[in-house]
Amino acid sequence: MSLKNWDNKTWLSSNSYIKSFNKFLTKQVELNKNSKILDIGCGRGKILGSLSQKLSLKKKPIGIDIEKHKDRDKRIIFKKIDALRFLKRNKKTFDLILIKQTIHLFKVKDIKNTLKLSKSLLNPNGKILIFTLDPINNEIPTFSAMKKKLKKALKRDKKIIQSISFLFKGKLIKGFSYKVKISRERYMEMVNSKYISVLLGMSQKTIFRGLDEIKSKFKKQIFFKDKLICLVLKK
Ligand SMILES: C[S@@+](CC[C@H](N)C(=O)[O-])C[C@H]1O[C@@H](n2cnc3c(N)ncnc32)[C@H](O)[C@@H]1O
User: Fold this and answer.
1) Is the shortest distance between the CB of 64 and ligand 1 below 6 Å?
2) CATH of the domain at 50
3) What is the distance between the alpha carbons of residues 235 and 53, in angstroms, rounded to a whole number?
C-alpha cells in the first residue's frame, strides 16, 4: 500500500502552504545558496523545489521517495529509493535533512538506523528537521472509523517522537500550523482517494460510510488548522 494521493492537488501542494512551510523552515535553520539539502520521503518534491528556488541553491537539492510521481518537481534531483538504502550508499553530506510527515511510515527498527545514518551525514552546523502531525492538538477532519485509527496512529507517533528525542537528544520546537479552508466536496474526494496513511487499509465500504458521515457532519466549507510538531536533531 503506498501513498500516491497525499500531495496530489491538495492544500499540501498549494503554493500558499508550500510558501508558508518554507518560511517556517528557513527560520529554524540557517540556509543560503551553498546549502546542501536532502528531503527523505519528498513525495512530489514541491516543497523542496520551491525551497531551492527561494534560496537560489547552486546545487539542486536531493529528494528521495519510494514513489516516483510523473508530475514530480523538476527543480530537484529525485531518486526513487528506500530511505535506508540511500543513506547506506550515499557519501554526500548535508546542511539540512528534512523528514516531513514520513517517519511514521518507517518500521520502528528502521527509524533508529535512518536517523543514525542521517546524523552521520550532517555538516558541522547541519540539522535534521522531523515534522509529524501534532499528536495532541491536531484538527484533521475525520469520520468515526478514521478518528479511531488516527488516534491509535498518533499514539504510536507520540511514542516514536519521545524515543527519538531521548536517543538522539532531539529538541521539540514550536510547530508549524496552517489554516486550511477546503470545500467539503474536495475533502471528500481526498478521503475517497485515501490521501492519508490511516485510510490506506480501509475497505471501500468503510470509506463510503465515512463519506456519508462527513457529508452530514461538516458544512459546505471546512475550516481547520493543519498542525505539525517539529523535532530538531543536531550533529
Ligand atoms: C505523507 S507523505 C509526505 C510527503 C512530503 N514529505 C510532504 O510532506 O508533502 C510520505 C512520503 O514518504 C514516502 N515513503 C514512505 N516510506 C518510505 C521509505 N522507506 N523511503 C523513502 N520514502 C518513503 C511515501 O512514498 C510518501 O511519499
Assistant:
1) yes
2) 3.40.50.150
3) 26
Residue 198 lies in a domain: no
Measure 109 CA to ligand 1 centroid, in angstroms: 17
Any domain includes 51: yes
- Closest C-alpha to ligand 1, atom 10: 102
Residue 194 to residue 178: CA distance in whole angstroms = 21
Which triple of cell numbers denotes residue 164? 527519538
pLDDT per residue as tens digits for the range 32-55? 999 999 999 999 999 999 999 999
Query: Sign (positive/negative) of CA torsion 122, 29, 134, 214?
Result: negative
Q: Model pTM?
A: 0.95
Residue range of the domain that includes 111: 11-180+226-234
pLDDT 10s digits, 78-96 = 999 999 999 999 999 999 9
Separation of CA 132 and ligand 1 centre (Å): 12
Please count the structural domains in the chain.
1
